[in-house]
């Protein structure tokens, strides 16, 4: 029987722990605060940010949401970040990516105070992850680690394949999987759009993390029997539904679940974990800044 890993249930448990920590901090006079900044009118980005704000409310974190016109100048966004960096009630800052093309995303990420960088995207925090001395682990890869741990999937000595090399998921995921630490110690291969014979690599893997952003690209015939499949993809594809689209992962669920021992669904797999780990990082940020 294939295990369908329930990300909602695991995320709920993590959020309950985080909520307890938030309450303790509030009792000491520090209510954790998370500022989200959206400079986009992309529907998916709007949805993600509102889910993050709702999670704050449910976790005892003070959510502050700010929107900027997508046509505003880069300087306007950088000034907004400076203001949030200086605000002692704000412990975490998240600028929803992507930002418009006329804004240099690197400059944006570098402007955020590394102590408030709850995404873990600032070069200082990226470097700390690579060095095995993480302050804020990036939310999605950290969520995948927690999800594997909760599903009793041991990574120690296993062959892991990460499909996708993004700064947000693929690269940090590979870094966490190779760490000399629980949830790491995996022999890790990173595949991407230029990889020759992807199926050969994924078929040799005990654990496949699909994070390429290509709908249903990983099919059952690309997997080995008994593997664990984690689907990070969230792709909107046109469909005859009320909204005109449906969400599908990077994995073709039906064929993959025939092969895999354990698999995450989309939605209800990695997505809720990302948000839970954002709440975790925000409470950690508040704790670091108050201590
Ligand atoms: N866009 C897609 N995923 C993320 C994320 O985890 N953080 C931010 N800031 N933007 C994103």
UniProtKB/TrEMBL annotation:
| Biological or metabolic pathway of the protein | One-carbon metabolism; tetrahydrofolate interconversion
Q: Which residues are noted in the entry as NADP(+)-binding?
A: 164-166, 234
Q: Does the keyword Protein transport apply?
A: no
Instruction: List, alphabetically, the Pfam families matched.
Output: THF_DHG_CYH (PF00763), THF_DHG_CYH_C (PF02882)
Q: Which reaction does it catalyse?
A: (6R)-5,10-methenyltetrahydrofolate + H2O = (6R)-10-formyltetrahydrofolate + H(+); (6R)-5,10-methylene-5,6,7,8-tetrahydrofolate + NADP(+) = (6R)-5,10-methenyltetrahydrofolate + NADPH
Q: Where in this chain does the record put each Tetrahydrofolate dehydrogenase/cyclohydrolase NAD(P)-binding domain?
A: 138-288
Q: What is its EC number?
A: 1.5.1.5, 3.5.4.9
Q: Which GO terms describe its biological process?
A: L-histidine biosynthetic process; methionine biosynthetic process; purine nucleotide biosynthetic process; tetrahydrofolate interconversion
Q: Which residues form the Tetrahydrofolate dehydrogenase/cyclohydrolase catalytic domain?
A: 5-119
Please indicate if the UniProt record lists Lyase as a keyword. Answer: no
**Alphabetized InterPro entries for the sequence:** Aminoacid_DH-like_N_sf (IPR046346), NAD(P)-bd_dom_sf (IPR036291), THF_DH/CycHdrlase (IPR000672), THF_DH/CycHdrlase_cat_dom (IPR020630), THF_DH/CycHdrlase_CS (IPR020867), THF_DH/CycHdrlase_NAD-bd_dom (IPR020631)
Alphabetical keyword list: Amino-acid biosynthesis, Histidine biosynthesis, Hydrolase, Methionine biosynthesis, Multifunctional enzyme, NADP, One-carbon metabolism, Oxidoreductase, Purine biosynthesis
Q: Which GO terms describe its molecular function?
A: methenyltetrahydrofolate cyclohydrolase activity; methylenetetrahydrofolate dehydrogenase (NADP+) activity
HAMAP family tied to this protein: THF_DHG_CYH
Quaternary state and interactors? Homodimer.
Q: Which PANTHER family match?
A: C-1-TETRAHYDROFOLATE SYNTHASE, CYTOPLASMIC, C-1-TETRAHYDROFOLATE SYNTHASE, CYTOPLASMIC-RELATED
Q: What does this protein do?
A: Catalyzes the oxidation of 5,10-methylenetetrahydrofolate to 5,10-methenyltetrahydrofolate and then the hydrolysis of 5,10-methenyltetrahydrofolate to 10-formyltetrahydrofolate.
Family designation = Belongs to the tetrahydrofolate dehydrogenase/cyclohydrolase family.
Query: What protein does this entry describe?
Result: Bifunctional protein FolD
* Organism listed in the record: Halobium salinum
Annotated gene: folD
């Amino acid at each position: 029987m294939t295990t369908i890993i329930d990300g909602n249930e695991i995320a709920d448990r993590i959020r309950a722990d985080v909520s307890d920590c938030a309450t303790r901090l509030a009792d000491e006079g520090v209510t954790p605060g998370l500022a989200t900044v959206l400079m986009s009118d992309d529907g998916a980005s709007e949805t993600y940010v509102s889910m993050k704000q709702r999670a704050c409310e449910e976790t005892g974190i003070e959510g502050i949401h700010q929107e900027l016109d997508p046509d505003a100048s880069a300087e306007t966004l950088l000034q907004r970040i400076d203001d949030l960096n200086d605000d002692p009630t704000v412990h975490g800052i998240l600028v929803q990516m992507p930002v418009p093309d006329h804004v240099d995303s690197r400059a944006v990420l570098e402007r955020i105070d590394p102590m408030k960088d709850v995404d873990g995207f600032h070069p200082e925090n990226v470097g700390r992850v690579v060095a095995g001395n993480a302050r804020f682990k990036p939310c999605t890869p950290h969520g995948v680690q927690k999800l594997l741990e909760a599903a009793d999937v041991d990574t120690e000595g296993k062959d892991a394949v990460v499909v996708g090399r993004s700064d947000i998921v693929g690269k940090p995921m590979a870094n966490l999987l190779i760490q000399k630490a629980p949830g790491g110690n995996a022999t890790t291969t990173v595949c991407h759009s230029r990889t020759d014979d992807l199926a050969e690599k994924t078929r040799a893997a005990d654990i496949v993390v699909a994070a390429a952003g290509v709908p249903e690209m990983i099919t059952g015939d690309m997997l080995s029997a008994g593997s664990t499949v984690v689907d990070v993809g969230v792709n909107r594809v046109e469909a005859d539904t009320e909204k005109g689209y449906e969400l599908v992962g990077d994995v073709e669920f039906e064929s993959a679940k025939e092969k895999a021992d354990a698999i995450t669904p989309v939605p209800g797999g990695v997505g809720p974990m990302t948000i839970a780990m954002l709440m975790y990082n925000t409470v950690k940020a508040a704790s670091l800044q108050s201590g």
